[in-house]
Amino acid sequence: MTVALSAKEVAAKLEPKFPASIIESNKDSLLVKSESLFELISFLKTTPEFDFNYLSSITAVDYLDYFELVYHLTSMEHNHSLVIKTRCYGRGNPTVPSIVSLYEGANVQEREIYDLMGISFEGHPNMKRIFLWDGFEGHPLRKDYL
Amino acid sequence: MVIVNPNVNLGNLPTLSPDWPGGFWWHWLLFTVIIIAVVIVMIMVNVYIARRQVGRMQSRVGPNRTGPFGIFQPLADALKVLLKEGIEPASIDRLIYWLAPVVAVVPVLLIFAVIPFTDGGMLADLNIGILYVVAISSISTVGTFMAGWASNNKFSLISAMRVIAAIVSYEMPVVLSIASVLLLVGSLSMNDIVLAQQDIPFILLQPLGFVIFFIAGLAEISRSPFDLLEADSEIVAGFFTEYSGIKFVLFYLVEYGEAFFFSCLITTLFLGGWRGPALPEWLWFIVKAVLVWFVIVWLWATLPRVRIDQLMALAWKFLLPLALINLIITAIQVLALPEGSWWVMIPVNFAVTAVLILLWSKLFKLGWGRVEV
Amino acid sequence: MAIRTEPFVLNMGPVHPSTHGVYRMRATLDGEVVVDLEPVIGYLHRGVEKLAEERTYTGVIPLTDRLDYISSMSNNLAYVMAVEKLAGIKVPERAEYLRVIMAELQRICNHLIAVGSFFNDCGAYFTPFLHMYREREKIIDLFEMVSGQRLTYNYMRVGGVSQDIPEEFLPALDRFLAQMPRCIDEYDLFLKENEILLARSKGVGILTREKAINCSITGPVLRATGVKWDLRKADPYSVYDRFEFDIPTGSAGDCYDRYRVRIAEMRQSLRIIEQALKQLPSGPVRVEVPHLVRPPVGEAYAHIESPKGELAFYLVSDNSIAPYRCHIRPTSLLNLSALRDMAIGWKIADLIIIFGSIDICLGEVDR
Amino acid sequence: MKFERYGIGIAKGLMVTLKTLFRHPTVSQYPEQRLHTSRRIRGNELAWDRQKCTGCATCAKTCPQGVIEIVTSTNLVENKYAVEKYQVDTGYCIQCGLCVEACPYEALFMGYAYERAKYRRSELVENKEDMMLESGKKQPSGYFYPEIAAKLPRQTLLVEKITEKEQ
Description:
The complex is a heterotetramer of chains A (146), B (373), C (367) and D (167). By secondary structure, chain B is an all-alpha fold. Chain B has one domain. Chain B has 14 helices and no strands. In chain B, helix 3 packs antiparallel against helix 4, helix 3 runs antiparallel to helix 5 and helix 13 runs antiparallel to helix 14. Chain C has one domain: Cytochrome-c3 Hydrogenase, chain B (Orthogonal Bundle), CATH 1.10.645.10. The longest helix of chain C has 30 residues. The relative contact order of chain C is 0.20. Classes of the chains: A alpha/beta (146), B mainly alpha (373), C alpha+beta (367), D alpha+beta (167). The interface between B and D is medium-sized, with 25 and 18 residues.
């Protein structure tokens, strides 16, 4: 059984390393600041205690006030998982750091989020639309897209 | 050794009197038409056999709606394709595009001039018959390459490159295995080759030559597992991707005509040609040719396709050395053994075949073919 | 001495016999060797995630049929599991077993197509493909019997399955289980040891373990690299913890191993179905759930081991009758992400079989 | 190319195809030879029972495609809705069967027929008269109605057709 790690406990362990980057932690998920997202996931991936070597999925949700990105991380070694969330504000050009250099599987998913949700990823090697054509206006999965 | 019959028998052929107006010209014309008709009918029969056989091997039925058991299906197909619009891409090399099917189809029909359907029943008993076959059969490759180039389509171009590479490589094992048959016969005439198989078909005397000729011939006529030039899963339809209508029919004719010619050639060289008890000679010939075609279709329905570098490796590393060795062994046997001593040759040759194939199989390994880029 | 050659760009697809849909590869070739590859997707994009936001929770189920249309049952299962997780619905025992039986039948069905079309890409002129379609037809018959449709089953419901199985289903399934092992043996006889197939697929398109995990690749492609990761064992959903089965793995991670893993998984699926039939309880197949499900505010992530790999649905609810956000974790899209690394340096013919061995479905890639 | 076992693998494959050549083909000749479809088949049409329908429009609400159009007026005499217009555009219908499942009065059925190819899209629109059970044109399928399913012919199964493989 894949153990969903309690985000509270993980947060307690991460707090000394990343002070003030964890906004909120409840039972299911860890909400972190987008600036420290890359370092945090990088730490989670490389630390043997966590060893999150496998990225299940990335997705984004439009809450109108902000966009929430949801990262599902899994460790195949320890068979546990963790949900990390981050928020980005503003509808013009919301930006979060890309984690493609950590997980290559993030490549297409981040492009997909950029295409459909309009969130740019800093440091992504090929930030282009993936499903829709280049001249397409708007980002269809946003709630205000009609 | 097998003695060559010096009196080539032309008697069975119903010749027309030379004092007809025009002399022999009528004779040539009439029999040319007859042979072309026979070839086209046989191509249709082959298409029908192939479709039904592949159908049954795939647990289907195959075409069965046109006529009894669907025997008119090839005719219906031909009519359908002939009536289709000839679509021509905009950016083609028009002259070559139009010329290519003609260049491809003419040599295939020419070859049948020297195929002995009965004893001496052929259009021209050339004394260089087999050389003529080898020479002419390569020309249709030019047509294929012209088609691939003129279509201005990348798939066609890849296909054309493949076919040139394959034909150039496979011509050699084919010729060498034919040469070892010719050593036994001592004549280049196609009819003499059949006459020489009076006692025993050459498939028993030349098992290795037969295997090499069959494999290399499959590659020459691009049938499975060497059908790289029209590998539908890779390069769509190969060189005739851009062809339609009557030009497509001509290429189709080339494909099946070559296959029929190949089975005729195998019949002549290795299976004793028109020889056989009870049935008329021409029927024996057709039956043997159809049997060879059955095997070709059987392989077609079963085997995956090889890759281009594996195709080349098979030719140069496997078939060519074996064909050379076979030629040398045959030459020694012909020189050293007394005539008619095929009781010695058969076991020796079969043993040599088994040993050589086992030895050469050790040379190949899996998983190669990656190129660092 | 190297001859200077000019690379050229070959557009394979969107309409090409072996791209399994409307996939397009811009391959840069040097002669026949692939030096670069850029996948271009989106030709089948229908905006399923956006459509799902406009429909009721039940109304999304027919949409999930059309994602990976080769294995609709698995998509149904993943989706309804997500909704049940969201709404906290407990599914009756019998329904769980029926779901497992259907999902495993679907796995066999999908692998038959995957292996068959892989052989077809290798150039075996449709014969193994049609032989496998014959067995797929038997499974499709069973699905038609229970759900009334042959491709888009729409069988699973929130809180169970739509209807109980008819009485003639179990005898037919028994016959199928009796026939299938012999059919798989026949496939093995057909091409398992075929020298040409070995030469074509052994050592071709090797994917390493680290690369596979890093690229989020799942399913038989991951297991062929030797990673024993199967969500049915790693995170047993439904009633999978009650069955005994092995996870077949490969060692080299090449095309041949992927094909072998799929064949081995078919045998394991038969084992699971046999056990499920023995344990199949009686009782209701569906709990009473209102037509318009209104799950509480929250989010749920449910993943299953679909035939192609990890398929997951991420649902966010705002306590209305339609999901606020429905994200589909695309198995096929992620499995494709290593295609470029696998194919570079191989010939164009290898590119086709590497692509075929990944087993993707464009309905799921583009959504 | 390695002949790992010198062509034995190829020979085995050839034997399989040869065996299949002499087996009975799996396919059936469609227009002459018709197989029975599933009793629960969701054919591409709907059947509608005018007597039972109350005009509640649950089907229209459930339809994920929104192809069911229903217009009712109040019938004060019988104290129920009168269905004035009931129309389904089967060209857009995806045959998911959710409307049949949702109908609380058992008034809607999936159709049993599957050969309804038409030349125009407009011919695919079915109205109330077309779908009525009383018209006799429609054979309802057993989808969600086991009592109808019991009367329909048994489905032809391939597992039962092919017996050669069994011991």
